[in-house]
Amino acid sequence: MTAQWTGATEAAMVFLDYMKKSLSQTKSMKELYANLASLARRFYEERPTSALLVNTIKKLAIRALELRDRSFDEALHDLLKLIDEEVDYSRRSVDELAQLASRRIPDDSVVLTHSYSTTVIKTLSLAHEKGKIKQVFVTESRPGGEGLHTAMALSERGLKTTLITDSAVNYFLDKVSLVVVGAEAITANGALVNKIGTSMIALASYHRRKRMIVLAGTYKFSFETVYGELIRIPEASLDLLGFPKDLLYPNVLVKAPLMDVTRPQYIDAIITEKGVTSPAGVPLIIWESLSGREELRTMSIHQVLSLLEEKAR
Amino acid sequence: MIPKEVLEIADGIKTMRIRGASLIAKSAAQALRIAAERYSGDASGFKPYITKVANLLLQTRPTAVSLPNAVYYVLNRTLSSSVSEARETAIRSSDEFIRMVDESHRRIMEYGSKLIQDEYVVFTHCHSTAVVDIILQAFREGKRVEVINTETRPLFQGRITLREIAKNGVKVTHVPDSAVRHFIKNANIVIVGADTITSDGYLVNKVGTSHLALAAWEAGIPFYSAAEFIKFSPASLEGGEVVIEFRSASEVLDIYPGGLADELRRLGVEVLNPAFDFTPPELITAFITNLGIIPPQLSVLIIKEMFGFSAGRIQLTVLEELV
Q: Which of the four pLDDT bands, split at 50, 70 and 90, describes residue A5?
């Protein structure tokens, strides 16, 4: 479905694209709910950590449920319009965020980044156009190796790019002046959920007094965590790890979670499309973004998905 | 005239046919023993002769730490003995050194296994024979020990550790290097091996070791390194720098489809692949050595006890001559 190495923003764009095509083919309200429910469920199961995906699903689903007494044509038109607006909003936000974030990057920066993030690539490219970047270190980002794609994208845009293994971060931190990463989700307490390895990089850079900034639009904030919902972390398959089958003794367990959690204490700043904040400022932004959208706050993704599935029956 | 067997050993070390710190050290000592035994000239010529053999051995792998340690253990004692006793001393101290290396393995296994309590989970990185021996010893003693280990990119030495431990029935959880901090909270103790230890207590070991040390420190979990005396560097006492070897990019890229690696090269992406990193003494609980469990700040004691303070000076001089 989605390529393994896509960032959270790209994955959400792919979702919206699929959804548009899928809804366009429906002929009745029941079918519309069915397609919405099954596609939302599929994408959520694949990437339950992505706050952007969860937020997007919730928005679409809640609108669809609000439209239940309208004619099919009207409802379809309305939903397709909403999808277009969402795509447009995300694109614009990423651009605004990258503009803002590139201003925060000092001259002569040697940047370290991890995994793959559209927002990070855009921000570093903008900063590079302003002549601010000397070099970028990119981690391989096992499992998955998304860092290879980041390295290619940056090198293609003219940045001096160096690929290193995940284990070599501390070795090269001496040379690094700034750590910049994207986000899968930001929780209510300002913690960062991102590709596995992020929290190790955060710890090492904190220990070495290197600044770490997180690029996360407000659409990456996980509203549900305000109400105690936990974020489920999926695991990589043995195939993705290339793990040799002959080593699978009955007493061997291979564990490869795809995400980890970085404590807010290790994050110097979170940059959103609305401005720069500290992790402590996250709840404030969440409350503000949610004013007047009661249902987005109170309903969890699980409730939303089951309501949709009920409608489809 | 240097005996043929000695040249063969030197060649074996150089071409990496003889590998592993202990084996390299023991082979070097063996070579010196053979050279001394076969010497047929007059007594006054022995010291220059054995120094020549020592130099030959040192040139085989200038960056390995166990090799110069073997050579200087024997050479120091030989050069400081009288002319008439020099040959005897060389033979005796070679034997003594080999015996000590073997015994240090047994001791480290014994001391290290005492650190593992019943139901402990041991976290380790890369592959170290000493660590595998410690874990299996604790397991044989009836302790219900479990292991978490990393795959250890780029060459996956963690899979060697996994096999050696798991085939004996110990439960092992295998994780990517990037997941070290995520899983450290499930461990009770970290034990890794050692490549080189400096006189100021820094551990040079497989790249990523410092991550594990930092994560353990943050989580309040003790971090040990199992290290025979041959891993301690007398040269560092004299300010000698430990040079980190950078290995080829293909080690990192080989697991990916060929097209991807070609594309990276075409786009000019640099790939840097250091083999080791430095773990500072403040993150190390202690070294498990053949002399006992010692804090990293006392590394200098091992160097003094095993090699003498002057060993590093001779070593550096010879290395400089080589350059």
A: low
pLDDT tops 80 at residue A3:
no
Kindly report the nearest CA distance between residue B272 and chain A, in angstroms: 6
Residue A116, domain member (yes or no): yes
Map out the domains of chain B as residue ranges: 4-105, 116-245+273-307
Quick one: DSSP state of residue A107? T
- Amino acid B315: pLDDT: 64
d(CA B225, CA A107): 41
Beta-carbon contacts of B307 under 8 Å, excluding residues fewer than 6 positions away, are B69, B72, B73, B76, B232, B234
What total number of domains does chain A contain? 2
Secondary structure element (H or E) that encloses residue A103, with its range: helix A72-103
Which chain A residue is nearest to residue B283, measuring alpha carbons? A207
Best residue in A146, A200, A231 to probe B by mutation, most B CBs within 10 Å? A200
* pLDDT for res B281: 98
Asked if pLDDT for residue A131 goes beyond 50, the answer is yes
User: Residues B13, B24: contact at Cβ < 8 Å?
Assistant: yes
Ramachandran area for residue A270 (φ above 0: left; ψ -120 to 50: alpha; else beta): beta
Give the pLDDT score at A226.
74
Return the residue in A167, A206, A263 with the most chain B beta carbons within 10 A, the one to mutate for interface testing: A167
Interchain CB contact of B210 with A (< 8 Å): yes
Domain that holds residue A207: 108-290
Looking at the complex, report in whole angstroms how far the Cα of residue A46 sits from the nearest Cα belonging to chain B: 20
DSSP-based three-state secondary structure for B311: helix
Residue B65, pLDDT > 90, answer no
Is residue A23 a contact partner of residue A35, using CB atoms and an 8 Å limit? Answer: yes
Residues belonging to chain A:
313
ipTM: 0.91
Backbone φ and ψ for B46, nearest 5 degrees, come out as -70, -45
Q: Residues B194-210: what's their mean pLDDT?
A: 96
The SS3 of residue B4 is helix
B323 falls in which pLDDT band (50, 70, 90)? very low
Per-residue pLDDT tens for A278-313? Answer: 999 988 888 787 776 777 767 889 999 999 999 888
Q: What is the CATH number of domain B4-105?
A: 1.20.120.420
Q: Is A222 exposed, middle or buried (0-12, 13-18, 19+ CB in 10 A)?
A: buried
Q: Report, as residue numbers or ranges, the catalytic residues of B.
A: 126, 195
- Let me know: does A145 contact B256? Beta carbons within 8 Å: yes
Reduce the DSSP state of residue A297 to 3 states and report it. Answer: helix
Q: Is the pLDDT of residue A221 over 70?
A: yes
User: Residue range A34-57: average pLDDT?
Assistant: 93
For the record, the structure tokens of B143 come out as 């302790």
Averaged over A228-237, what is the pLDDT? 85
Contact B185/A at CB under 8 A: no
pLDDT in tens, B225-255: 999 999 999 888 888 888 898 999 999 999 9
Fold for the domain defined by B116-245+273-307 = Rossmann fold (3.40.50)
Query: Got the DSSP string for B75-133?
Result: HHHHHTS-TTTHHHHHHHHHHHHHHHHHHHHHHHHHHHHHHPPTT-EEEE-S--HHHHH
Retrieve residue B266's tokens: 């075409």
End-to-end CA distance of chain A: 25
Tell me whether B17 touches chain A (CB under 8 Å): no
Q: What is the CATH number for A151?
A: 3.40.50.10470
